[in-house]
Specification:
Layout: E1 3-8, E2 10-11, H1 13-31, E3 35-39, H2 51-60, E4 64-66, E5 102-107, E6 110-118, H3 131-143, E7 149-154, H4 158-167, E8 174-178, E9 188-189, E10 195-197, E11 202-205, H5 214-223, E12 236-245, E13 251-260
Parallel strand pairs: 1-3, 2-11, 3-4, 6-7, 7-8, 8-10
Antiparallel strand pairs: 1-12, 5-6, 9-10, 11-12, 12-13
Amino acid sequence: MSVRILYIAEIVGKTGVFVVKNLLPGLRRDLKPDLVVACADGATGGAGVGRAHAAYLRKLGADILTTGERGFYKKDIVELFPKASWLLRPANYPYGVPGHGWKIYAAGERKIGVIQLLGQSGFPRTHLANPFLLVDDLLPRLKQETPVVIVEFHAATTAEKITMAAHLDGRATAVIGAHTRVPTADARVSAKGTAAITDAGRTGASLSVGGMDPAGRVREFLSGIPEWTRDGGRDLELQGCLVEADEDGRALSLELLRVPCKEVMLERTGNDDED
């Protein structure tokens, strides 16, 4: 009997949370996933996830939330990491850092392992252990309990993500790339039974720059001065993918998802960090 995992690509800002609220119930009904994994690394103001948003996304139906290099940006989330088994941070953080980088989750009568890793290129503020060596150590541990193991690789370069997919070919059920917030056109299932995609995209405004308001990003490039931009608000969309695997952990299919959100989000003013 097959198992189905719905992966929701990086949720960006209040716009992304709005999309999840409106679309996830229907996707659960129509796709019937056994597990829903959602990347929340940009859910609060586009950079990190606060405790309130984490709890709200969980309430909306996300079984597991992943983070990334911004996982500890919001101070109120730090104390939640060791308490919430459904909240992951990259496994290659140093020993003793709060939280979990991998877990095995019950999905009905099945078990599904999820590992989150952070890449080494392009993160000047975060320097973590080698993810390639670490995953070689983690995979055998998880496979003692389940053959179905999903790896989310949060990395800045396509080269590193494609290399990780090659490294885990035939060993992981799926290797899903995150961070760059742009869906790639290389969803595939290898002959060895590993599903992979370089980047699953983002959830929020599709007509935007990484989910954020384009005008602010343009000003940044013209001036060189960092600017705290607003969420994008045009053409809302849930992006991600659906992985189906057999009971031996071999991927059967990988479907890239781009689901439009027809509901209109009203403009709001004030502090949007924890709406």
